[in-house]
């Protein structure tokens, strides 16, 4: 069915498409590319997005977009450059006959009638729907903190947020920033603020940063380096209130433990919540997201869900998961399109969870599941170290900092194989050799590392601005050498 004008039951004029993607983030862009590669006809596919721009690589917003010199700007980071694929500019969508309905909010969905109603009053009907609505930032108001929409309190989820954050940063050089949160986004934003010559204090209730993934030993290593770059950590407490000046700007942050921190700006990174409200009561939900099968099909045969909203079976872990990471968004979108267009040739999604990041001079990857006992290995006073997670006598997760491509591939292969581990202590003593030996014995297909978009300083090298990022990286290496020298003398 090609696009056609239709008249809804309410008498509203609208359009109809064979395939509709609601949501315009990373998953939507990768789904569009997969549709095009598999020969979708002109006017068969429509993408509806609240954002006014075509899908882009969202991780760039907390990294190269915030660089003080030669920052990333669209169109350089539209999808799908994060995986070294085509750059899908608005012109690309036009050339492939894919309808972009931008700056448009979907007000309601009726999966029984296969229709969507936009805020503009247009009805869009579909035969197959892909939900790629992503997630929204959790706001402080949900915890009873009044921010009065202060102009120097920033969140970071979309392009508008990023532009606002840049404006606030540029007005605060040499000033004080308070980062609320200790997860992925908070750590990346803190590093970017330091790069912009802003003093940073991080506040979070946990005992250490990245508590959902890092062990205390791993977290301590990174926190030590952040502190060497001037970042202060206040752990074990939370924000209780702000102080404002006569113009409504935040001037200080008050914490529950009684501390008061002067602030010229505040960045909030306390988590995200999947955008599922359109489909509550219509589709099966679980773990805060939309429950799907191994082909990303929901409880309604005509509806699929991918990316941050999808709760799908992860066979390696033996349970269903909702994963908040760009690698999952990209790959789930591709698999869903394959399952839609070639259902008989597409099996269940076999996914090895992958998380990764590059901050300052560091580069780490985590594969699998961090369940069970963590066994550390390597030189935690040096630059290469890691950990294995052993659960029920099997290797289920692996973390490595500072590895070579061969070493990263080895820990991925070993984790995917889930070998029996009779003596976790011995596995830790063997370190990387444990994974290398297993990997050489039997090589599964390693999930491909999508290049670039997790890098804090350097993104995909095809970007025209990578040279400037290299200068930033060189400066960070010098700083690390000084810090590391002092660290070695101290120990």
Automatic annotation (TrEMBL):
The chain crosses the membrane at residues 463-485. The keyword Nucleus does not apply. Keywords: FAD, Flavoprotein, Membrane, NAD, Oxidoreductase, Redox-active center, Transmembrane, Transmembrane helix. GO terms for molecular function: monodehydroascorbate reductase (NADH) activity. Coiled coil: none annotated. Gene3D superfamilies: 3.30.390.30, FAD/NAD(P)-binding domain. It holds the Pfam family Pyr_redox_2. Residues 18-332 form the FAD/NAD(P)-binding domain. Residues 352-435 form the Monodehydroascorbate reductase 3-like C-terminal domain. The keyword Nucleotide-binding does not apply. Its EC number is 1.6.5.4. It comes from the Eukaryota. Its cofactor is FAD. GO terms for cellular component: cytoplasm. Belongs to the FAD-dependent oxidoreductase family. This is monodehydroascorbate reductase (NADH). It comes from Hibiscus trionum (Flower of an hour).
């Amino acid at each position: 069915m090609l696009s056609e004008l239709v008249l809804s039951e309410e008498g509203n004029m609208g359009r109809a498409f064979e395939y509709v993607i609601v949501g315009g983030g990373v998953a939507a862009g990768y789904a569009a590319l997969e549709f095009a590669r598999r020969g979708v006809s002109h006017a068969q596919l429509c993408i509806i997005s609240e954002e006014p721009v075509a899908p882009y690589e969202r991780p760039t917003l907390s990294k190269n977009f915030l660089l003080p010199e030669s920052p990333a700007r669209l169109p350089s980071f539209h999808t799908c450059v994060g995986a070294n694929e085509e750059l899908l500019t608005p012109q690309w969508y036009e050339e492939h006959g894919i309808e972009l309905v931008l700056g448009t909010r979907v007000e309601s969905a009726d999966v029984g009638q296969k229709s969507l109603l936009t805020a503009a009053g247009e009805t869009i009907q579909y035969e197959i729907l892909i939900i790629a609505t992503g997630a929204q930032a959790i706001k402080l108001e949900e915890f009873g903190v009044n921010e009065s929409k202060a102009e120097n309190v920033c969140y970071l989820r979309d392009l508008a947020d990023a532009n606002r954050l840049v404006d606030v940063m540029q007005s605060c050089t040499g000033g004080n920033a308070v980062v609320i949160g200790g997860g992925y986004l908070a750590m990346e934003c803190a590093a970017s603020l330091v790069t912009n010559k802003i003093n940073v204090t991080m506040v979070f209730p946990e005992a250490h940063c990245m508590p959902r993934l890092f062990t205390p030993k791993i977290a301590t290593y990174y926190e030590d380096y952040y502190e060497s770059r001037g970042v202060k950590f206040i752990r074990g407490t939370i924000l209780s209130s702000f102080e404002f000046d006569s113009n409504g700007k935040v001037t200080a942050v008050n914490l529950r433990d009684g501390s008061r921190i002067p602030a010229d700006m505040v960045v909030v990174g306390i988590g995200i919540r999947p955008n599922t409200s359109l489909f509550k009561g219509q589709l099966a939900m679980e773990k805060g997201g939309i429950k799907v099968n191994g082909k990303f099909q929901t409880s309604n045969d005509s509806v699929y869900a991918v990316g941050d909203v999808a709760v799908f079976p992860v066979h390696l872990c033996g349970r269903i998961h909702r994963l908040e990471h760009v690698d999952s968004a990209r790959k789930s979108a591709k698999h869903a399109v394959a399952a839609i267009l070639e259902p008989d040739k597409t099996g269940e999604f076999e996914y090895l969870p992958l998380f990764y990041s590059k901050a300052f001079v560091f580069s780490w990857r985590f594969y699998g599941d961090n369940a069970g006992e963590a066994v550390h290995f390597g030189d935690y006073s040096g630059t290469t170290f890691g950990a294995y997670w052993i659960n029920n006598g099997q290797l289920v997760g692996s973390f490595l900092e500072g590895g070579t491509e061969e070493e990263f591939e080895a820990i991925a292969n070993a984790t995917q194989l889930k070998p029996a581990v009779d003596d976790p202590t011995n596995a830790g003593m063997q370190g990387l050799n444990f994974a290398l030996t297993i990997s050489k014995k039997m090589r599964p297909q390693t999930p491909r590392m999508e290049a670039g978009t997790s890098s804090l300083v350097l993104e995909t090298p095809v970007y025209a601005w990578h040279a400037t990022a290299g200068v930033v990286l060189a400066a960070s290496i010098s700083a690390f050498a000084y810090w590391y020298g002092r660290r070695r003398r101290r120990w």
